[in-house]
Amino acid sequence: MIQTKDLSIIYENKRIDFPDIDVNQGNHFLILGRSGSGKTSFLNLIGGLSSPSGGQVKINNENIALLSSNKLDKFRGINIGFIFQTPHFIKSLNINDNLMLSQYFLGNRDQNHIDTLLEKVGLLNRKKDSLHELSEGEKQRVSIVRALINKPKIILADEPTSALDDYSCEIVIELLKNLSEENNSVLIIVTHDKRLKDKFKQFIDLDAF
């Protein structure tokens, strides 16, 4: 499903080389690394948000760096759901409208799907609330729903638990794993959060390279 080969990037006049990975459909993969190890850059390369200085990323045997800008945007919208370290929402919209906006960009409108996902993360009764009314853990759960809203085959999460206490961390990770399994999606998480290491069978530690 996802293969990287000889991947590297130049950042602040420094070259960062990344290990090769090969992640099959439906698998969960953890990338650990301290601050400055390049883990977010690695995730951005995998998701097509950045272009590599060397090497390649293949998704379903397609080298995504060869896609035009428009085709890459469409490819990401259809195939990849992103969860960022700090959730980004439109503050003037409530939870439900933020999620509907994500559907709108791909020409979708499925309120039942939104309601189903919100129920699974325990926030259906909050869908008309504003984002500022939510805790950090609840915002991250909404981020998970948004990442899954268009049924992507790949979910990429950047430090999804770093701002969460142990209880919220456990909830968010189990939700991510369970919902990605239901959707048969690849799940790749990059983090410095050592609490996650024992929760994944497949992982690499960038600090070891």
Explain what you see.
- By secondary structure, the chain is of the alpha/beta class.
- It has one domain (2-208): P-loop containing nucleotide triphosphate hydrolases (Rossmann fold), CATH 3.40.50.300.
- Helices cover 33% and strands 22% of the residues.
- The chain has 6 helices and 10 strands; from the N terminus they run E-E-E-E-H-E-E-H-E-H-H-H-E-H-E-E.
- The strands form 2 sheets. Strands 1, 2, 3, 5 and 6 form a 5-stranded antiparallel sheet that branches. Strands 7-8-9-4-10 form a 5-stranded parallel sheet, with helices on both faces.
- Helix 6 (166-182) links the parallel strand 8 (154-158) and strand 9 (186-191).
- Helix 5 runs parallel beside helix 6 (166-182).
- The longest helix is centred in the C-terminal third of the chain and has 17 residues, at 166-182.
- The protein is globular.
Helix content: 25-40%
Distance, first to last CA: 24 Å
Report the top-level CATH class. Answer: Alpha Beta
* Radius of gyration of CA atoms, rounded to a whole number: 17 Å
What general outline do the C-alpha atoms trace? globular
Summarize the helix and strand pattern as letters. Answer: EEEEHEEHEHHHEHEE
The pLDDT mean sits at 93
The CATH homologous superfamily corresponds to P-loop containing nucleotide triphosphate hydrolases
CATH topology value: Rossmann fold
Proportion of residues in β-strands:
15-25%
Unreliably modeled segments: none
What structural category characterises the helix and strand content?
alpha/beta
The biggest sheet amounts to: 5 strands, antiparallel
Beta-strand segment tally: 10
Number of domains: 1
How many alpha or pi helices? 6
Q: Tell me which CATH architecture applies here.
A: 3-Layer(aba) Sandwich
